Amino acid sequence: MRVSRGTEVLLFLAACGGGEPAASNALRLALINDPILNPVLSPDVGSVLVNKVIFPGLVRPDEQLRPSPDLATSWTVSEDGKVYTFALRHGVKWHDGAPFTSRDVQYTFEQIRDPRAGGFLWSDYTAIDHVEAPDSFTVRFVLKTPFAAFLTLLGYNSGIIPEHAFGGKPIADNTAFNRGKPIGTGPFRVVDAVPGSSLTLQANPDYYGSRPKLSEIIFKLVPDANAQIAALRAGELDLVTLEPASLPGIRDVGGIAIRQATIPQHYFVGFNQRLPMFKPALVRRALDLAVNRKAIIDGVLKGAADLPVGTIPVALGEWFADSLPRAPTDTAEALRLLGQAGWTRAAGGLLRNAKGEPFRFTIRVDKGNPSREQSALALQQDWKAIGMEVSIETVEFAALVRDDLQPGKFDAILIWWTTPPDPDQYSYYVTGQINNNVAYSNRLVDSLLAAGRGETDLARRRGIYHAFQAAERDDPPVLVLYYPREIQAMTTRLQGFPRLGIRDALRHAELFSLTSR
Question: What is the DSSP string of 194-226?
Answer without folding.
Answer: ETTTEEEEEE-TT-SSSPPS-SEEEEEE---HH
